[in-house]
Design a protein that fits this description.
Length: about 210
């Protein structure tokens, strides 16, 4: 167990050094941690990609957030936790994204045809990476996270998420904790979260090494 832990730590160091040695790769620190399940109100929708006007695409996503926040505010059931986007597409889609807007709750509220209420599953091992600044470079940060996952012999084990630690919001008809609100692009903070497990190939190689030497 100690050898395995040290080997995994060395692999993480190697991946970090590889990022430092690549000019186009920012220096990021990936953290592995568990995510607890939580009661949420959610709205799942297809958001078409607008290559010529990315701001319009962001506005449509923001409108979905506002819709759920306004609904939850009616019940005064908003938990003091960051909102989340769950990305349900397993592969890149050039025409749009299957998104689920998730707002944490303190207690259950009535569901509607558009807004669902359920317990969002937790995750034992989530690879997490913090992105600061505007969303126009979010895909680059996500690409860096995917590279780290591959270099460290993990595989993706479910829908990825983006947790918005600091974000912009109109707050028309609802109010959020001031600590979450950013007024400038450089104040935005987003945590990308990818559920992972060790790859079967590495587990097989480790078993062959252990049992093959007995």
């Amino acid at each position: 167990a100690r050898i395995r832990a040290e080997t995994e730590q060395l692999a993480r160091v190697d991946a970090y050094l590889a990022q430092m040695g690549t000019e186009e790769s920012p220096r990021y620190d990936v953290v592995l941690r568990s995510i607890a399940p939580g009661l949420v109100a959610s709205l799942r929708a297809w958001v078409a990609t607008d290559a010529e006007n990315a701001a319009d695409e962001e506005d449509r996503t923001a409108a979905l957030f506002d819709e759920v926040e306004l609904y939850v505010a009616r019940f005064k059931a908003r938990a003091a936790l960051p909102p989340v986007i769950v990305y349900h597409d397993r592969e890149y889609r050039s025409d749009g994204q299957d998104l689920e807007i998730v707002i944490p709750l303190t207690s259950a509220v009535a569901a509607t045809e558009r807004i669902q209420v359920y317990e969002l599953p937790g995750c034992e091992t989530m690879a997490c990476l913090i992105h600061t600044g505007g969303y126009e470079h979010l895909s680059q940060t996500f690409s860096t996270l995917l590279q780290w996952i591959e270099r460290n012999a993990y595989v993706i084990d479910g829908p990825t998420r983006a947790s918005f630690l600091r974000f912009g919001a109109d707050q028309e008809g609802y109010a959020l904790p001031e600590s979450y609100i950013a007024t400038q692009a450089d104040e935005l903070v987003t945590e990308l979260q990818v559920p992972v497990v060790k790859s079967l190939e590495e587990n097989s190689e480790r078993e062959q090494t252990i049992f093959g030497g007995v």
